[in-house]
Design brief:
heterodimer; A: 111 residues; mainly alpha; 5 helices; 0% strand; B: 244 residues; 12 helices; 74% helix
């Protein structure tokens, strides 16, 4: 991507992010969301984060399915999920998932 | 400071409240540090480079959106898809703004601009927690919020810069598995939420659509999956009588 294209992407990201954060503050209480809209917004994090992670984990090279237990991405993600459910501590889930991933990839040399 | 010329008390109280906000944010500063470091290292080794990494942290200031933009750009996504995806990923901030807007309604616009720019998951959580049960010091809550936001901002920029320098010095660092940190983080955030039946359905829908639509041009599959997941969530909410 060219320097100008890159600047445009960063500028666009900055504009939409600030716009979301500022619009309600600018109006100062004159706009309230319907409960239906608030509930819809609550689903955004789960939907977005899942949609990002699942293809990365199941098709690590972006082309081919890898559903084997030897897949370091899959093993690491499962480790992270189990730790998150068991400990309720995000940093423990991240550290544990990373440890499984690194063990699979560099310790056991699975790919 | 010259003791013969003390600061007016109002200023002292404001500064104390800002410091208080920064101090209450400390654990979250520590939590954000590795992400700033990893983002800086990965972005510096990508076509964005050190300048792009710093500009993104300074101007966008939204961790998960920055990581997603980085992976989309590395995958060859079009610029407009990156901006549109950023918009969807950051829509959750509308909820935070809705929750805080009563507190900012009496402030001048320059305060609202500043607090909006610094509105992150972490600062929202800190401010919400402080004033949820206890209206104590509510007259100075904009100073408290600004203290938290300034601390997060300086922390994020500092760790991005440190990571960018590391990534530039030894690009091999980014082949040590740092790219998995994104997956571990997102899984750690989502997994506990899936105990709720509707959230589980949202996640399954998003996963299936993301896999089925991964061949779409411009990396539009992510947006399609996010919208499908939210649509299923809204539908199930309505079916269960709007309750959760």
């Amino acid at each position: 991507m060219s320097g100008w294209g890159e600047a445009a992407v960063i500028g666009g990201m900055a504009a939409v992010t600030f716009g979301i954060r500022y619009v309600l503050f600018a109006l100062g209480g004159r706009l309230q969301f319907a409960p239906r809209v608030q509930q819809a917004l609550r689903h955004v994090p789960v939907a977005v984060l899942t949609a990002i992670v699942v293809p990365m984990v199941l098709l690590p090279d972006g082309q081919h399915w890898n559903l084997s237990w030897r897949n370091p991405w899959l093993a690491g993600a499962l480790g992270s999920a189990v730790l998150a459910l068991a400990s309720h501590r995000l940093l423990a889930a991240i550290a544990g998932g990373m440890a499984v991933y690194l063990l699979w990839r560099f310790g056991l040399r699975f790919t | 400071m010259d003791p013969a010329c003390p600061q007016p008390p109002a200023w002292t109280a404001s500064a104390r409240e800002a410091l208080h906000g920064a101090r209450d944010t400390a654990p979250l500063l520590l939590g954000a540090a590795p992400f700033g470091l990893i983002f800086g290292a990965l972005a510096a080794a990508s076509p964005l480079g050190v300048g792009g990494a710093l500009a993104m942290s300074a101007l966008v200031f939204a961790g998960s959106a920055q990581f997603i933009a980085l992976s989309l750009l590395s995958g060859g996504a079009a610029g407009w898809v990156v901006v549109l995806t950023t918009w969807v990923v950051n829509l959750r901030h509308l909820l935070y703004a809705a929750s805080l807007q009563r507190g900012v309604a009496r402030l001048p616009q320059r305060w609202r601009l500043l607090l909006a720019f610094w509105l992150t998951d972490e600062t929202y959580a800190t401010v919400y927690h402080r004033y949820q049960h206890d209206a104590d010091g509510a007259a100075l809550r904009h100073w408290y919020t600004a203290g938290s936001g300034a601390a997060m901002y300086a922390n994020w920029l500092g760790w991005t810069a440190a990571g960018a320098l590391l990534g530039q010095a030894s690009p091999a660092l980014t082949h040590l598995g740092l790219e998995f940190a994104l997956v571990a983080t997102f899984v750690g955030i989502v997994a506990p939420l899936l105990r709720q039946r509707i959230s589980l359905a949202v996640a399954l829908t998003a996963a299936v659509v993301a896999l089925a639509a991964r061949g779409l041009p411009y990396k539009l599959g992510l947006l399609a999956a996010a919208l499908a997941g939210v649509a299923v969530g809204v539908w199930l909410d309505a079916r269960s009588g709007g309750g959760r």
